[in-house]
Amino acid sequence: MSRMPQLSGQEVVKALCKLGFMVHHHYRSSHIVLRHETLVERRVTVPSHRVIKKGTLKSILRQAGITLEELRTVL
Hints:
With 75 residues, the protein is an alpha+beta fold. It has one domain: 2-Layer Sandwich (Metal Transport, Frataxin, Chain A). It contains three helices and three strands; from the N terminus they run αβββαα. It has helices at 9-18, 54-64, 68-74, and strands at 21-27, 31-36, 43-47. Strands 1-2-3 form a three-stranded antiparallel beta sheet. It starts with 8 loop residues before the first helix and ends with a helix.
């Protein structure tokens, strides 16, 4: 298994946008909520931190329905 990359919240949001997600709204600049363009029920919440912890990143990937390899391809 590959090591989890250290990414910021903004880097994760940019990568998810490349995979078909779009920013839906912000929670007072602490969290960013994204929705998939075609799969409306697919919703992902990303904390806008400088570095996202690896457990949080795993949860984001699970919510988005993507693998670590798919994320790496768009980084």
